[in-house]
Write a structure and sequence with these properties.
Elements lengths: L1 H21 L6 E7 L18 H8 L2 E3 L2 E2 L5 H10 L30 H7 L3 E7 L17 E5 L11 E2 L2 E2 L1 E3 L2 E2 L6 H19 L4 E6 L11 H10 L5 H26 L6 E7 L23 H4 L3 E4 L8 E3 L3 E2 L3 H8 L14 H4 L10 E6 L2 H4 L3 E7 L2 E4 L8 E4 L15 H17 L9
Parallel strand pairs: 1-10, 1-11, 2-13, 3-14, 4-5, 4-10
Antiparallel strand pairs: 2-12, 5-8, 6-7, 8-9, 11-12, 15-16, 16-17, 17-18
Helix pairs in contact: 2-7, 5-7, 6-7
């Protein structure tokens, strides 16, 4: 009888621990808001800008603002693959953009690699993706097959129109696996679906959740709602027309972020939720997006293509109004979320844990930052080009045909003076490190086997 009583007691304790986890009493919810092609210079919390982003600014003011974060790639799919795996994108088969037509597609998301959603689901979280997926159009790389309990969004790379939602005449809008045909601007739809999801989780109250809210704004085509464009034109009638479209699309996105944050608070979830806002890469310069003060933009390995806005808000846990110049990458969220969720962090990650930074402590030892992109067309020829940052130094190529460039980012943050011929020792040191990174990914196929 005594052994039976002890056994029952142990089971009750274990069950209560599991219930505490499922109720979210000890484990935070995660909301990751991921913008598409949002330039560092288009978020007014960093500097004066003709684009007004009060809601993103407020999120940053109420949390920790990162001033030196970079995306994992200068284009969409690789950044998303890295974010969801904690590995450099070419190590999971996505060195380039995954597209509708195989002849112009440069990645295949390795289905054997568990995603952040897989790990959090295993730890007792409900997992949801609302918005843009861009990591596969068919099985086995559909969101519900890669760890997400719920998917409501767009499978493809970009929309040809924000209101028709088509890409090359194909409808990639889905609710889980079902084809849907919703009406409205994509940014508004994704916001409405996110708000509904948060309300539903508040009512369910059963376990913590991970919401990956991936907007396709402000990616071109530059199609803000007419009312938002009118606001910009009324406020700044002399603004260049291309710039006005860009600003209106950014400000419409900012309003969407505000709506999500209000829903989080109204649902009573905000104090139990870590919210992170960032973007997949820099803005597109030809579309009048701004990345200042950095050089270049989307597709470039100059910092305008890599530096992204990044802010983390968690009331009572992350100091409000704090700033950090920690030099990291978006995929550092992978081990961060797992630790905060009480989940086991898998070995062999390239990502680093941001928990010390969120807690105001010193981060781990510095590491190299590696970037790669493979692309087709005449400009790239299906080849890859890479970059590597070690401390204050950056070695990079901006297309497969150009010579390597070397910059001291501390002395020359705008990357104006190429030191490759003047400092061969540093050039060779970083070149050797870069080759090692390229070799590590050499056995991973980026085409479907």
């Amino acid at each position: 009888m005594r052994l039976f009583a002890i056994t029952v007691t142990i089971l009750v304790v274990l069950n209560s621990i599991g219930m505490a986890h499922s109720a979210g009493k000890e484990w935070p919810n995660f909301v990751l808001i991921f913008a598409d092609d949002l330039g560092y210079g288009d978020v007014s919390t960093y500097q004066a800008s003709d684009a007004q982003t009060p809601h993103i600014d407020r999120l940053a003011k109420e949390g920790l603002l990162f001033t030196s974060m970079r995306a994992n790639c200068t284009v969409c799919s690789p950044s998303r693959a890295a974010l969801l795996t904690g590995l450099y994108p070419d190590r999971v088969g996505v060195p380039g953009v995954i597209r509708t037509h195989p002849k112009d597609s440069w990645g295949y998301f390795d289905p054997k690699v568990p995603t952040l959603a897989n790990h959090l689901k295993k730890a007792g979280y409900h997992t949801a993706l609302i918005g843009k997926w861009h990591l596969g159009l068919e099985s086995p790389n559909l969101p519900n097959e890669r760890g997400f309990d719920f998917f409501h969004g767009f499978l493809g790379d970009m929309m040809d129109n924000y209101t028709t939602h088509l890409r090359h005449g194909n409808n990639y809008m889905r609710r889980n696996r079902d084809v849907i045909r919703p009406a409205g601007h994509a940014t508004d739809l994704f916001t409405e679906w996110a708000v509904d999801y948060l309300k539903g989780r508040a009512k369910a109250g059963a376990k913590p959740f991970f919401l990956y809210l991936a907007y396709n704004a402000p990616h071109f085509p530059m199609e803000p709602p007419a009312a938002w464009l009118d606001r910009v034109k009324d406020r700044a009638p002399g603004m260049d027309s291309k710039r006005a479209l860009s600003v209106a699309l950014v400000e419409h996105l900012d309003d969407a972020v505000g709506r999500v944050m209000r829903a989080l608070k109204q649902s009573g979830l905000d104090r139990d939720t870590l919210v992170v806002f960032t973007a997949d890469n820099g803005g597109s310069v030809p579309h009048a997006q701004r990345n200042n003060p950095w050089r270049g933009g989307k597709q470039d390995h100059y910092d305008g293509g890599l530096r992204v806005p990044f802010a983390a808000r968690w009331p009572g846990r992350v100091e409000a109004g704090a700033r950090t110049d920690y030099t990291g990458l978006n995929f550092d969220l992978f081990p961060t979320f797992l630790q905060l969720a009480g989940a086991k962090i898998p070995p062999g990650l390239d990502a680093r844990n941001l928990v010390p930074v969120l807690e105001g402590r010193s981060p781990a030892e510095p590491r190299d930052l590696y970037f790669v992109r493979r692309e087709g067309g005449i400009v790239y020829g299906g080849k890859s080009y890479e970059a590597l940052i070690r401390g204050d130094w950056k070695l990079m190529q901006n297309d497969p045909w150009s010579p390597m460039e070397l910059y001291n980012l501390k002395a020359d943050p705008q990357e104006k003076t190429n030191l490759a011929s003047q400092n061969r020792q540093k050039h060779n040191e970083l070149a050797n490190a870069l080759r090692e990174q390229i070799q590590r990914a050499g056995s991973i196929p980026w085409r479907k086997p």
